[in-house]
Design a protein that fits this description.
The protein is α/β, with parallel strands linked by helices. The protein has twelve helices and 15 strands. The strands form four sheets. Strands 2-3-4-5-6-7-8-9 form an eight-stranded parallel β-sheet. A three-stranded antiparallel β-sheet has the order 1-10-15. Helix 1 links the parallel strand 2 (11-14) and strand 3 (35-38). Helix 3 (83-90) packs parallel to helix 4. The two termini are 23 Å apart. The model has no long low-confidence stretch (mean pLDDT 97).
Length: 347
């Protein structure tokens, strides 16, 4: 296949950061996606509707005039998030979910939830008001191996949570393991998952074999090849419970290439080209439109985009660096060649 035309996709999990970083991140996401679920883990985090609306205004102010893009806002759950906070968010037309970060699990998660027992009334309110829960699914216990933290979170925390709140819509974000795939497949229709391009394209050998490559370092961390294969199978299966979420996360190059480097892969600029590589590798390009453009809106109860995107078999080289405010970042796969090029079609 040399060309594929699909409905314009959406990104159901992205980090845009704030302030001068928005000039880069908003430009990149709006080049490809019609909408995106915006992560609230700023510093300080976005914990209520008013803060979410202020952040939304900053995002829209950074949007190039020629680009059409809608940010879908979220709030960040803490131990002290109230039922009233949830009610206000659920009733707001621009807020689409609340995000659960276990405290200490990833970037800017120090204010996250320390125990699910502390937010049972919050989860009850989310179930009552129909606000979806987005989950970073990892335990943070220091004695648990980092490669096992997602699977143990599902067993210890997520399965009991779903059992206690059967009417709560849940997205297990950026899944990385065969156990996560199995959990989502075996759960009811209110449980879904997003899958990143980097977890489809790479496994931990790419990050560690022959030398440490910090730009492949993300959380949840890349796993074994058997888990990568499970993700590829899920993404290309046509199962509507799995859809696109890039988890694109910008960090400056110096903070990635450091003695204690930051977790996160920047993929927003070439997101659909990365996904096309993964799906083409599985002989499943015919499944890409559902995964990228249909299943996410269906799950969130939104209309699909009406514009289209063209993916064509044309090589392009990923630049070594991209601007990020007054400094720069290194995109995933810097210097490598992508076999596909994506462009929006304008009627």
């Amino acid at each position: 296949m040399q060309e594929l035309i699909i409905t314009r996709p959406d990104d159901w999990h992205i980090h845009l950061r704030d302030n001068d970083a928005l000039e880069t991140t908003v430009l990149d996401v709006s080049r490809q996606f019609g909408r995106a679920i915006i992560m609230p883990n700023l510093s300080p985090p976005i914990v209520n509707a008013n803060q979410a609306m202020s952040y939304r205004e900053r995002i829209l102010a950074a949007l190039p005039e020629a680009n059409d893009f809608t940010p879908l806002m979220t709030i960040y759950l803490t131990d002290t998030t109230t039922a009233e906070d949830i009610k206000e968010a659920a009733e707001h037309p621009h807020i689409y979910a609340a995000k659960l970060y276990p405290a200490g699990a990833t970037t800017n998660s120090d204010n996250g939830v320390t125990s699910l027992d502390k937010i049972q009334s919050t989860l009850d309110a989310m179930e009552t008001y129909g606000l979806p829960l987005l989950v970073h699914g990892e335990v943070t216990d220091s004695d648990i191996d980092i490669f096992d933290r997602e699977a143990i979170f599902i067993e210890r925390s997520l399965a009991p949570l779903v059992s206690r709140h059967p009417k709560l819509k849940v997205v297990l974000e950026h899944i990385t393991t065969a156990q996560a795939v199995e959990f989502v497949e075996c759960s009811g229709p209110l449980i879904a998952a997003t899958i990143t391009a980097h977890h489809l394209l790479y496994n931990r050998n790419h990050m560690l074999a022959g030398g440490i490559r910090p730009h492949y370092y993300c959380l949840p961390i890349l796993k074994r090849d058997i888990h990568q294969q499970a993700l590829l199978k899920a993404a290309t299966s046509g199962n509507p419970k799995f859809f696109l979420g890039t988890d694109s996360a910008p960090h400056t190059t110096d903070k990635k290439e450091a003695a204690c480097g930051c977790a996160g892969c920047y993929t927003a600029r070439y997101a659909m080209e990365y996904y096309a590589e993964a799906f083409a590798g599985e002989g499943a390009l015919d499944k890409l439109e559902d995964f990228a453009s249909h299943f996410g809106p269906n799950f969130y109860g939104l209309d699909r985009n009406t514009t289209r995107m063209r993916l064509h078999k044309t090589d392009q080289t990923i630049p070594q660096q991209l601007p990020l405010g007054s400094t720069h970042l290194t995109p995933l796969g810097a210097g490598e060649t992508l076999a596909w090029t994506a462009e929006l079609l304008h009627d």
